[in-house]
Every structure is written in C-alpha cells, then in structure tokens.
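Re-running MFS transporter to confirm reproducibility after the cluster update. Everything else is unchanged from the original entry.
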Amino acid sequence: MHQQQTAISDNVHFPWLIMVLMSSVTFVGILSELMPSGVLPQMMAELNISEVQGGNLVGYYAIASAIFAIPLVSLTMQFNRKILLLVLLAGFAVSNIVAGLSLHYTVIIFLRIIGGICAGVMWPMIAAYGMRLVNEEQHGKAIAVIMAGNTLGISLGMPIVTFIGNEYGWRTEFIALGIFILAIALLCIFVLPSTPGEKLTKSSSPFALLKIPAVLIVLLLTLLGVSAHYGVYVYITSLVDEIELAGGIESALLLFGAGSLISVLLAIKYTDLYLRLLTVAMFALLIVSMLVFILFGGTTGIAHFAFFLWGLSFGPLVTLFQAAVSRQVESAKDVATSVQSSAFNFSIMLATSGAGLLLGIYSPMVLTTMAIALAIPGLLISFFAKKTLS
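Result of re-run:
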C-alpha cells in the first residue's frame, strides 16, 4: 500500500508539461538533422549537386554534432540552462529558415554545420537539464519522456515533413520547420524554469569521465547498439527491396514506427526500475528480428512482424544509454551525456560507412548479419554488467 502511494505521489509531482515541451525540442532536433534525406532528389536537382554532395547535407551535420558536443558542452556548463536552450533553438530556427531561402549549396552546408553544432550541445544538455527538475528516482523517466521526441521525429515527424517537402517544395519544408521551432522557443520562455549552470571541475571533465570503467562500458554498449541498428536502418530501403516486402517501404516504416512508439512508452514507465533488463531485451529483440529476415526473407506477415520487433528494439536506444551513463556520475551530468552523445554520433558515422562498403560488395542481407555480430557481444556485456546497469 505504501509503495502504491509513493508511486502515485511520484506521478503527481512529475512535471509532465515541462518534460513534453522538452520532448518537442528533441522532436525538432532530429527533424533538423534528417529532413534533407526525404527530399534529396529535389535539392540535388535545384542546387545542381551530386548524390555525394546531397549526402553531405546530413553527413556534415552529424560530424559537427559529434566533434563539437564535448568541447562546447564543457564550455557552456556555467551558462543558465534555460538561456542556453533558447540560444540553441534560435540557432536551429535561423539555420533552417535561412537555408530555405538560400540559393547557394556552400551557404546551405555552412548553415547545416551551425545546426549540427547546436544539436551537439542540445542533445546532452537537455537530458541533464530535465534530470535536474525531478528527483533521482525519476531520472530515467525524465530522459525517456524527453528523448521520446527523437523516436516520434523519426517515426511520425519525418513522413509529415517529407510530405510537406514533396507537395510544396523543400524550401517550404525548411522554413516551416524553422517557424515551428520559433513557436517552441516562445513556449519555452514562459514554461521552462530558469536553472543555473554548474562549475566544471577536474573530476567532472570529459577526460576524468573516460577513466571510469563503468562509463567505458556504457560507451562500448553505445558503439555496439547504435552501429548494429543504424548500419541497417540507414539502408532500410535497400533491405525492403531485397526481400521484396509486400507494401514496400511504407508498410515497413509504419510497423517499425509502431514498435518504436510502444517501446518508448515502456521505457518511460520502466527505465528507472529495469534499466539492465530493458537493455538486454533491446539487444535480444534486434538479434531475433534480424534472424527472421535471414531465415524467412520477405514472407508476408512474418517479415512484417520482424519490422515491428525491430522497432520495439530501436525505440528506447537513446534513452537507455543516456540513462546508463548519467547513473555513473553525481554531478556534471551534461558532460557525461555529451561524451555518450558524441559516441552515439560517431557510431552512426562508422555504421553508415562500414555498411556502405559492405553493400558495395554483398547484397543488403549482409547488413542483418553485421547487426547480429554487433548485437551478440552487446547482449552479453549488458547481461553481465550488473553494477553498471543496476
């Protein structure tokens, strides 16, 4: 009875409005990064650029996020969290709106790099900002709600902005997202609490964190989990074509998105209680879904269920690893999550490059084998890392 009352009390005091608003920030953050991929043919034709140059519109953004996350999060540690977030939202808005108005590829690339730098600071700082607004028992829940915006952006936001881009032009898509970001910034001014920054000490520097064995374990799990997922996800269209899935990429993304949304809801509810179990389950579901693709190919129904299982595995990816790394430190959680965020982005780049090389030699099914090869050690490490993921 006492436990039930405590749970009810926790739910009452959980600042849902603030956390959902923060979730909208991660929603537009992922859209800012991935948006060009849905309208690349349009952008290539109008800007008269090659496929490689088109790919750089997303690639340079990710590289900027990975490179600048750790140094800039460390430099901005002392800044007021609310003011810093508003500055980052302004950066997102301006980079998207001006890119939508620009006629030159070089200018757009420069703006994409600015957007990437803002993202590199935003992803780790917003999770740490959210954790400071709740008690310790709700840290995982806070991260899960905030990072739900990332999954919603991939599963729901991308189809919407791609539709806008295809119907009204890619410039309209960029400008519309920029205006939407300004609206979120306006809400943040009135809703988000003002929170002071922290002093960066020697014990909380990125280099000090890298000496903590538990942090290194989380970074290794991040490398394995992210590489396994994104090595296949980036080339999901190739996989769908290879297995000749009934309903094509639309049905694959719909089922993948449905699975992701369900697992995000589960992560919100259970991350604080069962972090290790959820991490083991994430790797296990990935292995099972990839095995189904290998064994049953595009068999109608079975392959569709595999995309749903894969989505279940994919949904809590960001939440689990950010929650895990934040548990390893008492203060300067921004720096800890920035180290993890950089590892996340570098893992995406490694996975994309490695999978691209494999696709040049083998069929897309090789990517499912690669995912299994990366997920098995991830599963074993998660299972035995009782102290780290407790």
